[in-house]
Amino acid sequence: xxxxxxxxxxxxxxxxxxxxxxxxxxxxxxxxxxxxxxxxxxxxxxxxxxxxxxxxxxxxxxxxxxxxxxxxxxxxxxxxxxxxxxxxxxxxxxxxxxxxxxxxxxxxxxxxxxxxxxxxxxxxxxxxxxxxxxxxxxxxxxxxxxxxx
Length: 149
Hints:
With 149 residues, the chain is α+β, with helices and mostly antiparallel strands. The chain has a single domain (2-145), classed as 2-Layer Sandwich (Alpha-Beta Plaits), CATH 3.30.70. 41% of the residues lie in helices and 23% in strands. Strands 3-6-8-7 form a 4-stranded mixed β-sheet, with helices on both faces. Strands 1-2 form a two-stranded antiparallel ribbon. A two-stranded antiparallel sheet has the order 4-5. Helix 2 (7-27) runs antiparallel to helix 3. 32% of the residues are buried.
Protein backbone atom coordinates (compact mmCIF):
# COMPACT_ATOMS: atom_id res chain seq x y z
CA UNK A 1 0.00 0.00 0.00
CA UNK A 2 2.95 2.31 0.62
CA UNK A 3 3.98 1.88 -3.03
CA UNK A 4 0.48 2.77 -4.25
CA UNK A 5 -0.34 5.65 -1.88
CA UNK A 6 3.09 6.92 -0.89
CA UNK A 7 4.55 7.26 2.59
CA UNK A 8 2.78 10.45 3.67
CA UNK A 9 -0.70 9.43 2.49
CA UNK A 10 -0.46 5.98 4.05
CA UNK A 11 0.86 7.44 7.29
CA UNK A 12 -2.06 9.87 7.45
CA UNK A 13 -4.59 7.12 6.77
CA UNK A 14 -2.94 4.85 9.35
CA UNK A 15 -2.94 7.65 11.94
CA UNK A 16 -6.65 8.24 11.32
CA UNK A 17 -7.31 4.50 11.67
CA UNK A 18 -5.50 4.34 15.02
CA UNK A 19 -7.73 7.10 16.35
CA UNK A 20 -10.85 5.30 15.15
CA UNK A 21 -9.67 1.98 16.60
CA UNK A 22 -9.05 3.60 19.98
CA UNK A 23 -12.56 5.08 19.91
CA UNK A 24 -14.10 1.68 19.08
CA UNK A 25 -12.15 0.06 21.91
CA UNK A 26 -13.18 2.78 24.37
CA UNK A 27 -16.88 2.47 23.40
CA UNK A 28 -16.78 -1.14 24.62
CA UNK A 29 -14.89 -0.16 27.80
CA UNK A 30 -11.66 -1.67 26.50
CA UNK A 31 -8.22 -0.48 27.53
CA UNK A 32 -5.33 -0.18 25.09
CA UNK A 33 -2.11 -1.68 26.47
CA UNK A 34 -0.06 1.46 25.82
CA UNK A 35 3.27 -0.12 26.72
CA UNK A 36 2.88 -2.95 24.21
CA UNK A 37 4.46 -1.94 20.91
CA UNK A 38 3.16 -4.01 17.99
CA UNK A 39 4.51 -2.12 15.02
CA UNK A 40 1.40 -0.49 13.60
CA UNK A 41 -0.95 -2.63 15.72
CA UNK A 42 -2.78 -2.25 19.01
CA UNK A 43 -3.49 -4.60 21.88
CA UNK A 44 -6.52 -4.05 24.08
CA UNK A 45 -7.99 -5.63 27.18
CA UNK A 46 -11.71 -6.14 27.74
CA UNK A 47 -13.79 -7.31 30.67
CA UNK A 48 -15.95 -9.61 28.53
CA UNK A 49 -15.53 -11.68 25.39
CA UNK A 50 -18.68 -10.07 23.98
CA UNK A 51 -17.20 -6.58 24.35
CA UNK A 52 -13.98 -7.67 22.65
CA UNK A 53 -15.90 -9.13 19.71
CA UNK A 54 -18.13 -6.06 19.33
CA UNK A 55 -15.07 -3.79 19.39
CA UNK A 56 -13.27 -6.05 16.92
CA UNK A 57 -16.17 -5.85 14.49
CA UNK A 58 -16.26 -2.06 14.84
CA UNK A 59 -12.50 -1.90 14.22
CA UNK A 60 -12.95 -3.98 11.07
CA UNK A 61 -15.69 -1.63 9.81
CA UNK A 62 -13.58 1.49 10.48
CA UNK A 63 -10.60 0.01 8.63
CA UNK A 64 -12.78 -0.94 5.65
CA UNK A 65 -14.18 2.61 5.53
CA UNK A 66 -10.62 3.89 5.15
CA UNK A 67 -9.70 1.25 2.60
CA UNK A 68 -7.29 -0.49 4.98
CA UNK A 69 -7.02 -4.10 6.08
CA UNK A 70 -6.71 -5.11 9.72
CA UNK A 71 -5.85 -8.47 11.22
CA UNK A 72 -7.79 -9.21 14.38
CA UNK A 73 -7.38 -11.96 16.96
CA UNK A 74 -8.99 -12.48 20.36
CA UNK A 75 -8.20 -14.87 23.19
CA UNK A 76 -9.29 -14.91 26.83
CA UNK A 77 -7.15 -15.75 29.81
CA UNK A 78 -5.19 -14.51 32.76
CA UNK A 79 -2.57 -11.82 32.14
CA UNK A 80 0.11 -10.15 34.16
CA UNK A 81 -0.37 -6.40 34.19
CA UNK A 82 2.59 -4.12 34.71
CA UNK A 83 2.13 -0.36 34.54
CA UNK A 84 0.82 0.17 30.99
CA UNK A 85 1.70 -3.27 29.64
CA UNK A 86 0.50 -6.88 29.81
CA UNK A 87 2.33 -10.19 29.63
CA UNK A 88 1.63 -13.90 29.74
CA UNK A 89 0.54 -16.93 27.80
CA UNK A 90 -2.88 -15.50 26.97
CA UNK A 91 -1.21 -12.46 25.38
CA UNK A 92 1.00 -14.71 23.25
CA UNK A 93 -1.94 -16.81 22.08
CA UNK A 94 -3.95 -13.70 21.18
CA UNK A 95 -1.02 -12.34 19.16
CA UNK A 96 -0.58 -15.65 17.31
CA UNK A 97 -4.30 -15.87 16.54
CA UNK A 98 -4.14 -12.32 15.18
CA UNK A 99 -1.20 -13.34 13.02
CA UNK A 100 -3.20 -16.25 11.62
CA UNK A 101 -6.01 -13.98 10.43
CA UNK A 102 -6.27 -12.73 6.88
CA UNK A 103 -7.03 -9.12 6.00
CA UNK A 104 -10.19 -7.85 7.72
CA UNK A 105 -10.78 -11.21 9.39
CA UNK A 106 -11.62 -11.48 13.08
CA UNK A 107 -10.47 -14.78 14.56
CA UNK A 108 -11.20 -15.93 18.10
CA UNK A 109 -10.05 -18.87 20.16
CA UNK A 110 -12.38 -21.66 21.17
CA UNK A 111 -12.27 -20.17 24.67
CA UNK A 112 -13.69 -16.86 23.43
CA UNK A 113 -16.30 -18.60 21.29
CA UNK A 114 -17.47 -20.54 24.34
CA UNK A 115 -17.73 -17.39 26.43
CA UNK A 116 -19.57 -15.31 23.83
CA UNK A 117 -21.51 -17.76 21.68
CA UNK A 118 -24.91 -16.74 23.06
CA UNK A 119 -24.21 -13.11 23.98
CA UNK A 120 -22.33 -11.53 21.07
CA UNK A 121 -25.07 -11.74 18.43
CA UNK A 122 -22.72 -13.25 15.86
CA UNK A 123 -22.03 -16.60 14.30
CA UNK A 124 -18.74 -18.44 14.30
CA UNK A 125 -17.17 -20.34 11.42
CA UNK A 126 -14.82 -23.13 12.51
CA UNK A 127 -11.35 -22.66 11.02
CA UNK A 128 -9.89 -25.79 12.58
CA UNK A 129 -6.95 -26.24 14.90
CA UNK A 130 -3.74 -24.32 14.41
CA UNK A 131 -0.25 -25.03 15.66
CA UNK A 132 0.76 -21.64 16.98
CA UNK A 133 4.40 -20.71 17.47
CA UNK A 134 5.43 -21.04 21.10
CA UNK A 135 2.15 -22.74 22.12
CA UNK A 136 2.38 -26.40 23.09
CA UNK A 137 -1.17 -27.51 22.30
CA UNK A 138 -3.00 -26.82 19.02
CA UNK A 139 -5.58 -24.04 19.31
CA UNK A 140 -9.00 -24.23 17.61
CA UNK A 141 -9.96 -20.91 16.05
CA UNK A 142 -13.19 -19.50 14.68
CA UNK A 143 -13.89 -16.65 12.28
CA UNK A 144 -16.50 -14.23 13.58
CA UNK A 145 -19.30 -13.51 11.17
CA UNK A 146 -21.41 -10.48 12.01
CA UNK A 147 -25.17 -10.55 11.51
CA UNK A 148 -24.70 -8.53 8.30
CA UNK A 149 -21.91 -10.77 6.92
